[in-house]
Write a sequence for this structure.
């Protein structure tokens, strides 16, 4: 357990970490590791092992060079920028930009999360989640990134623009396209 309360900002923690405060880095890790893991999982083929490796690599980079963080910016924007760049590098390395394999590992988690009160709804939710993940996999890296950052990580349009280094108008356009494509693929699912 770290000595820092939740009242201290991420930016302040990074300043302390850049001065060698290991507890500050531990607090940042505690706050962000799960969110970053989820981001990597959604961006990197729903693969838990790959997401865990990338999460570890990201925090290792931060630990090695905490001074690389500019405290004039929000930590969330900076960390998602690093994570997004790591994904781009992996896509290039794998030479896979438009073909992403679908993995059913997310479906069992969705079924467990929905409960068993209504079996039809549970099956629909699982099928919807599988179809959503498959559809995300067919989107370009740019469209998938803005969708995940907006609807899974809940970043603002400005934060997404900062992370992706494009204008807010471009973010809106990419979101519109992503939502349109996803809507076309999941239109048969109806929930109360």
């Amino acid at each position: 357990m770290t000595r820092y309360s939740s009242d201290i900002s991420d930016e302040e923690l990074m300043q302390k970490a850049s001065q060698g405060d290991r507890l500050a880095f531990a607090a940042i890790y505690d706050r962000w590791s799960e969110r970053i893991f989820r981001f990597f999982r959604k961006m990197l083929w729903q693969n838990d092992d790959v997401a865990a490796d990338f999460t570890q690599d990201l925090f290792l980079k931060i630990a090695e060079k905490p001074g690389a963080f500019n405290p004039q910016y929000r930590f969330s924007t900076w960390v998602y920028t690093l994570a997004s760049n790591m994904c781009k590098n992996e896509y290039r390395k794998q030479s896979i930009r438009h073909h992403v394999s679908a993995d059913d590992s997310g479906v069992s988690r969705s079924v467990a999360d929905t409960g068993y009160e209504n079996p039809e709804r549970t099956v629909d939710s699982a099928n919807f989640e599988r179809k959503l993940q498959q559809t995300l996999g067919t989107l370009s890296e740019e469209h998938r990134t803005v969708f995940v950052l907006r609807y899974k990580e809940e970043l603002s349009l400005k934060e997404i623009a900062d992370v992706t280094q494009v204008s807010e108008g471009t973010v809106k356009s990419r979101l519109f396209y992503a939502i349109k494509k996803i809507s076309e693929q999941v239109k048969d699912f109806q929930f109360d």
